[in-house]
Batch of 4 targets.
Target 1
Amino acid sequence: MHTENVKILIVEDDPDMAELISDLVEAEGWSPTTAKSAEEASVILSRETFHLVLVDHNLPGTSGRAFAQRLRAQTSIGIVMVTAAGSAAERVLGLETAADDYVVKPFEPIELTARIKAVLRRTIPSFKAEKESEREHEAAALQLGDWVVDLKRRRAICTAEPARTLTTAEFALLEILAETPNAPVSRSHILDRLGAESDRYVDRNVDVLVLRLRRKIERNPDLPRHIQTRRGKGYVLHTDEIEIAP
């Protein structure tokens, strides 16, 4: 299945949230359709076929959970619940009743799209095969000024003299930013991705880590070209892709 053929139904009564999710879906090359209620979604599903349904937990009329349960009883379509209810009990209940996955508002755009892709890979074999084929042809490395960053071998090579090296934390930050080049990554997402190391960091320490990485990567750290700040959104990595022989 080609990416552009993926159809996603977004069941969300908040027009701003529905628009945001639609934009994220379209940015991935998928085709979004929106519904404001479970009743409207049922009408749309009766005349169109979709590959995945994003369902808001708190819908007017029939609840999102009840709608997802009914949908699951009728079809094996992928279902992702989107909700502001953040307790572990709510998440577990949502997964046990119907949903394939669960995303809590406010969410990071890359978290939502990653969860959608994971569900599509599980529910659509051809989607999984296509994604695996795409990964085989992805660029093996990134060019950042005087640096070549080999993501597959997890190493960063400085081609300038004197040669410099990256610390484990600096390389981890670079990997996080490189997952979504040209898109902002928030401080909170960076903290979350640092995983077991996150208890040693706070927002300000992320800024310090970015500053340290800039001093090594950028030719002019005061006017960064590759690691840029987006006010209120986080940091963006701009790269030039190159190929490294296997």
Target 2
Amino acid sequence: MYMELFPPEIEIIRKRVKRMTLRIRTEDECVICTIPWYVSKAETLEFIHKNKTWIEKQKQKIRQLRAMHIHREKGMLLYMGESYRVVAVEHATMPGIINKEEKIIISSINTEDESQRKEWYTLQAHSILPPIIDEQARLHGFAYKKITIKHQKSKWGSCSVDGSLNFNAKMMITPEHVIHYLIIHELAHTREFHHGEKFWNLVESCCPDYLEAEKYLRTMGRVIEI
């Protein structure tokens, strides 16, 4: 087997899919091309070339959105849609104490260490999400098997056929109404395992302002970074 060499700005993913698809990774504007395993390099490059205009438009959108984004500053953490100043205390716990009124977090976290930031968001997600999920499941009559929380590059959440829910710890950066929507979205899949009309009607009945949350995820949600 030999290694196919593509330009560094292109990442190829071979999978058991029926057609070629494209997306642009927000972090570095890399072109991600998913292709069936049998498609040749020449066919792949031709497909990318034919979609050059679309690719450039997507990159421009990402740059515009990034320009709108309030980036995390040194000594700060983005939490539930707002910026918090971190007071570093060596003997404090990693999750720390969150003062929502003064927008202060007292924690042992080193905010300049990405791995520690990921750990912090994961700890917050494990603490905050399960009670909300339980409450919404009881309120709307949903049943789920288990909850998994981890960091993912693209998906905010997913629901397996057995009712197991998976959430991205990164959602702890988003505003509360977005977190609520993401939970309802995946719970709704335990009853309607598709994105058809019945699914969206169910989502709307449980989360009337879901379109506002969807708009956030399509815009700011594409560029927020841990």
Target 3
Amino acid sequence: MTGFRIMSSDRIVPLSDSTTAGPEAKTGLGIALKVWLFRFIAAIPNFTLLGLLILAWQFASTVWIPSIDPHMAVLMPAPTVIASAAISMIRSGELLSNLLDSLRREAVAFVFAATAIPLGIAMGWWKVVYNQVSPVMEILRPIPPLAWIPLSILWFGLGDAQNEFIIFLGIFFPILVNTIVGVKNIDPSLIRAARSLGAPEYKVLGRVVLLGAMPQIITGIRIGLGVGWMALVAAELVGANSGLGFLINDARSMLRTDVIIVGMLTIGIVGLLIDVAIRILGRQLMPWSLALGK
């Protein structure tokens, strides 16, 4: 609320909003913090199984396995050893450097794989395009991205281009298939209504078809990025000099199982964060859609 300051007997000046907004802003911030704290506390029981598994892992690595064969303990390091290795790698910058290289390759491959969206719209909208492209797609789609690694090394050599090609294959087809399905599942009455109101073809495609297929497209992007992230690590195992896959393979040659597991956990956590980010973006773009959940 806006207050007033009496400057003289005949002059009343309204107080600025900043003088009264301070307590309200602090109150709003306090409420937001309480809400987040409540959500955090409420989510703690969901991690019970994870906590029990970590405790069991710690016990097996420090007590059970050494009692059977002390030499086997190095093959299954305890969570505390892995945490120590992760902290050391973070401080040295080794983990961040390799992670950024992997993310860069994923991003470049996604830019090229995004061409699946207009192609999928064309295949779902025009039957002649679908009839021509579908046979090629159905032959190439079942081939695993990893099966292309030997050929991609011959084509591109060892390096970023080879890795990005493998990731591209992992991302492209899930986006393409989901885009086609999204276009074909649009309610025909929406298209007829747009045309009856005089909308030209390009507006029907942009405002009805694209928006109507967007939930399926976002789902395809989520699946594609996940598959591409897995394919990336496999490609880096044999054809890269940096990245998380290279980090894991290099640690294997030195029998650093703690570094291997740090790399694996990083892959899993980053993959989860990518998926969460896509879901949040999808909810922001499509608040009306229930396809991405709450």
Target 4
Amino acid sequence: MQPVKFTQARIIAFDNDGTLYPAGGEVCMSVLAAHRTYVREKGLDIPTPGLQWVQSHIGADAREFYAMMMPGQPRSVIEDFEEYCLHHEKSAIDARPHLYEGAPELLAALKEAGKILVLVSNGSPRYLKHIWDAAGYGNYFSQMYPYGPPDYGSKGDRLKLAHGDWGGGPAVMIGDRRSDWEAAQFAGLPFIGCRYGYGYEDELRDADHVVSSIQGLAKVLL
């Protein structure tokens, strides 16, 4: 099999959390703070998980993530909690809008090189819009493809849609979790795994290439 030539990709699809944005710190802490307050105010007997638990579930689709934090609760409560969390998350994002070191420079260089950049995330539309605005994603990306209504399509569905929306051809998916690799497989695209993110080592075992830093990503893309 011939090695994948990532520099030839004209469409580059990025995951967000753990790939470009370090959500595992302040944002995760804000989710935990929101959970503690919410269950106390609503009188729910649900323990708040630890930071490691939240970090290990970064990358799950938004509906699944909030449901796991509200086990046994009806959808109405889960949706109410998600809404409650979003206010806390927005404050955390506004306070810490910075991408991984070197990421803005990489995105700018890719755009300057004529690449089409799309953001394909399992975050909700509102969550991703918060980061889009705070981090200045509009300076680099052509479009975002979050997880949400009307059809709540899988990440693979949305990656395939993004690929078609922007003319198809050589493309690559970049992410830090197994779900990103699965999306690339579904869309028939190669995958670069980011070891510096929140995925476990084994999640990237089938990646076409693995990098350990933003700088390593720049080397294979440029």
